[in-house]
Amino acid sequence: MPVHEPGKRLMHHVPLEFVRKKVSGHGARNVNAGLSLTSFIDFLIVTVVFLIMTFTTSSEAPLAKGITLPKAENTIDMIDAPMVAINGSEVLVDGSAAGNTRAIEDSKRMQRIDELFNILKSKREIWKQLHPGKDFPGVVILQVDQDVQAVVVKSVFQTAAFAGFPNVSFMVGMIPKTQH
Amino acid sequence: MAGIDVGGGGGKGKRSLDSEINMIPMIDLLMVTIAFLLINAVWTHMSRINADAQVPGPPRPDEEVIKQEPEKVLNIEMRSQDKFVLIWKQAGTVISTIDVPRKDDIQMDGQLKSIRYPDLAAKISSEWQTVGTHRDPTDRKFDQAILHTDNETPYVFIIGVIDAIYQAHRPFNMGGKTDQVPAFNVTFAVN
Q1: N or C: which end of chain A has fewer CB within 10 A?
Q2: What is the pLDDT of residue A21?
Q3: Which of A51, A168, A174 sits opposite B37 (nearest CB)?
């Protein structure tokens, strides 16, 4: 029996390149990694439970582009009502243009926004036709950017009130309630 | 393949109580559930803050007008940079006037701004405790607060003051259950 030089012998007889590289220690790291199935399923279940807990069936009210809402603590839940957004100097009702506030900003005086007034009034008429004999709730939700001046808010507020929407709500971001 | 052992069983001729769940469909189900919930998740929670407008409505000939004693109303003046003025009025007559120093506690969260007035909130609460009319939990009516601002005030400051007014809470009996609800109805004066 011939005498061989001492060294690594395992798998050296396999005539394959990648096996030779692997056993000689020069091969790349294995691309397959082991994963503990128990931990993986635990993680998935925890994720599912968290998402179910935070899940809400009510759809989120769409926020007009470019508006940064302020935050408040003592708030109430959103309701389904016409949405008036003040985006820069543009006024939108449910996403459709309803006048602008440039004249109010320039004059710094409260004014009625006629286009907004007409749209809200027609919305009120439609509601009354669809719900005969019922009291009109008169709720409108305002989405106003945090830096808009009070005179613009007042003008929109008054226009909405005169169009038959005296219950005005301001849409805000929610701050978690502190203990009183 | 993983299994669930529910114990027992193993008797002669009886069906085994051990059952196996195929892991691959189970993980698929969990993944699909996660994807569905992530797509439908709502990360920003919006809510609203209420304010009424005092606008005379059209006459209602079908309703009898009941003459009521004018109530005390809290007027909050926000026209100065250094103080708020709280004025209790009854039928246009000033009952009392209180000055509250104005300290804007501005909190920034990236672009989002929130203004807090803890001193004003505390003062409004204590005023309501002493002067407020509708304090009984069975009382269906609420005290009225009217906010007056100048024309230049940014909207975020108005929200800060309305939030401070709503900080005052009272017990309110609703369907046999007593809840804590805001003590005031807020009206935003446009004059």
Answers
A1: N
A2: 72
A3: A51
